[in-house]
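Handoff note, outgoing to incoming analyst
You'll be picking up this chain. Sequence as last confirmed:
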Amino acid sequence: MTPRGTAVVLDAPGRFRLVPHAPRPPGPGEAQVRVHAVGICGSDRELYQGNRPPEYVRYPVVPGHEWSGTVIAVGEQAPASLIGRKVVGEGLWNCQTCERCRDGETSLCTAGYEETGFTLPGAMAPTLTLPARLLHVLPPDADLTAAALLEPAACAAAAVLKACPLPGSRVAVIGTGALGLLATQLLGSFSPGELVVIGTRPDRAGPAHRFGATSYRTWDDAAGLSGFDVVIEAAGASSSAHAATYLPRRGGRVVLTGNPPPGAKGLDPAQVVVRQLSMGSVFGASSGAWTYAVRAFAAGRLDPLPLVTHELRVDEFARAMDLVRGGDPGTGKVLLRPH
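Most recent structure output, in case you need it:
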């Protein structure tokens, strides 16, 4: 029986409804997923507050792009073997036929932006229907609560893969949110000689070390930090990208993945050119990065579960948004459970 229940609908910034869920049967090539849990991130906060760029949102919309669940039905031309499997799914509905997709850069699809939870119905509902080609199958014993955070993990994986760390490298990660900590955990698999996490609050030292950092420094205590082979910027603060270019050695690599606010401090071209820094950036995650994150999760090399501090019912959406926007240091990832 197809699950029914309550879904969240955002009609406009700051305006939402709790409505009876109307499941959409899967069409050709599609799968219907029973949602287990859905995470809330900064992009969802932007969606709710109305400061997400207009080209990346379409109201009304059911939010929710970080999710996990179990396939309960498939349409024609979708593998019947998916039924009953635990899955996560890519948010970007890439076409897989344009030049960028065929080159493996599916997060740069030129067919036009469409994303689950922003322009298309998301997972803050009992079921989600989407193209089966976007699904990544999990092991039968996978923890679906932890798996709900594989979307930010895939974004972190994209940054790590672009950074190309080598064993013994000196690595720095800027940012102690979900993206920074998940990148730190993945970087640990490359056996860095030093893995320093840089944040703004002393109380983030514990989480940084639990996720694999060899040391933690606040910016107040970061004087003298330099000479890193790789720097990953995952904070998205107004000055963190600028600061990231002063941390690597000459010829080092910097990957920017935090989403900076309007008016953020720009990079110094002379600093980049004279020191011959290799610069990269990541927005979202390609299918390859998703595959890497799912494999790392299945192998036990990636565990996002310690990030979760709150699990609420989907009809507690208002409370969840208050938690995410409240700035309480004790609030980590907030999950909603539709069932």
